[in-house]
């Protein structure tokens, strides 16, 4: 018997076949939301990608790269708190 319509979001969130898509969506959300979390960094940092819970950031110069490296733990913590789950474990600066 037909149970009626199922929301697309329920299918994407619950079906095992969409695990890769869910992962990719979460990675993209980190990049898209980065400046919402850190608006003051918009002139010196550009998030480029997320791969295996590692966020890759392009930094304007070596001085900022050093400064951000010291704040790496705080940045990771703020991102994970914003999304209410562990999305980032490491940050790589370039």
Give the neighbour order of strands across the main sheet: 1-2-3
What is the N-to-C succession of helices and strands? HHEEHHE
Number of domains: 1
Average the pLDDT over all residues and give the rounded result: 91
What does this protein structure show overall?
By secondary structure, the protein is an alpha+beta fold. It has one domain: GMP Synthetase, Chain A, domain 3. The chain contains 4 helices and 3 strands. The chain has helices at 8-14, 19-37, 62-70, 72-83, and strands at residues 45-51, 54-59, 90-93. It has a 3-stranded mixed sheet with strand order 1-2-3. β1 (45-51) and β2 form a beta hairpin. It is elongated, with a radius of gyration of 17 Å. The chain starts with 7 loop residues before the first helix and ends with a strand. The model has no long low-confidence stretch (mean pLDDT 91).
Provide a compact summary of the structure.
It contains four helices and three strands; from the N terminus they run H-H-E-E-H-H-E.
Topology:
Layout: H1 8-14, H2 19-37, E1 45-51, E2 54-59, H3 62-70, H4 72-83, E3 90-93
Parallel strand pairs: 2-3
Antiparallel strand pairs: 1-2
Features:
single chain; 94 residues; alpha+beta; GMP Synthetase, Chain A, domain 3; 3-stranded mixed sheet; 4 helices; 50% helix
């Amino acid at each position: 018997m037909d149970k009626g319509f199922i929301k697309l979001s329920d299918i994407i969130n619950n079906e095992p076949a969409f695990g890769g898509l869910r992962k990719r969506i979460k990675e993209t959300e980190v990049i898209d939301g980065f400046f919402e979390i850190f608006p003051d960094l918009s002139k010196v940092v550009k998030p480029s990608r997320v791969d295996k819970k590692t966020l890759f950031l392009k930094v304007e110069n070596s001085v900022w790269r050093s400064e951000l490296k010291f704040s790496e733990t705080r940045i990771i913590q703020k991102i994970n708190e914003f999304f209410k789950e562990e999305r980032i474990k490491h940050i790589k600066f370039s």
